[in-house]
Amino acid sequence: MLALIRHGQTDWNAAGRLQGRTDIPLNDVGRAQARAAASAFSGGLWQSVVSSPLGRARETAEILADALDLPIGGTYDELLEQEYGEAEGVHVAEIASRWPDRAIPGKEPEAEVARRGLRGLERISADHGGAPVLAVAHGSFIRYTLSGISGHDPRHYPRFENLSSSHVRFEDAAWRVHTVAGVEFAEVLLDLEARAAEDERAA
């Protein structure tokens, strides 16, 4: 079992700017979010905390590890956020007008983010002997990784709030999504299918 956790808030999050690989640190709100979220992971299930190398993810992981008295593991390049190229630092509201077709120069393809995410899950699991691990990463990364596992359109997944946690488990020879931002996947699946049906009707 792995919990994919979105990092705490940064100033660019608060301002609505796209971060991607730009290494923006946590702000004080983000640090408080991480401290407040730690209790949700207490109880002895989780064995260690790992993260993306970006500072906002690493500091979130360190806060969680300290609060839970868990070992802090390594950083994994596979957990890095999607590269957004020329859109990094741009306000989210401007993206559609500047790149209507979303063909942003320098952007990492979504399918590659999903493949990278699956490689990361495999590597973390292997490095930790299959033990339950908290993995702090990024919103778009989590979205595409979950969609790669479930086979659903990533656009139909909900938005991931800071410190939201989504659980995946390796079972029956494959990764399975168990929860999405704290909601059971069976419940989320209904919404994913409804959104897919809406797209088909609109096509």
From TrEMBL:
Keywords: Isomerase
Gene Ontology CC annotations of this record: cytoplasm
Amino acids binding substrate: R6, H7, G8, Q9, T10, D11, W12, N13, R56, E81, Q82, E83, Y84
EC nos: 5.4.2.12
Enzyme class name: isomerase
One of the record's GO molecular function terms: phosphatase activity
SUPFAM superfamilies: Phosphoglycerate mutase-like
Residues annotated as catalytic: H7 (tele-phosphohistidine intermediate), E81 (proton donor/acceptor)
InterPro entries in UniProt: His_Pase_superF_clade-1, His_PPase_superfam, PG/BPGM_mutase_AS, PGM_Phosphatase
Keyword Cell inner membrane: no
PANTHER family referenced in this protein's UniProt entry, alphabetically: ADENOSYLCOBALAMIN_ALPHA-RIBAZOLE PHOSPHATASE (PTHR48100:SF59), BROAD-SPECIFICITY PHOSPHATASE YOR283W-RELATED (PTHR48100)
Protein name: Phosphoglycerate mutase
Organism of origin: Agromyces terreus
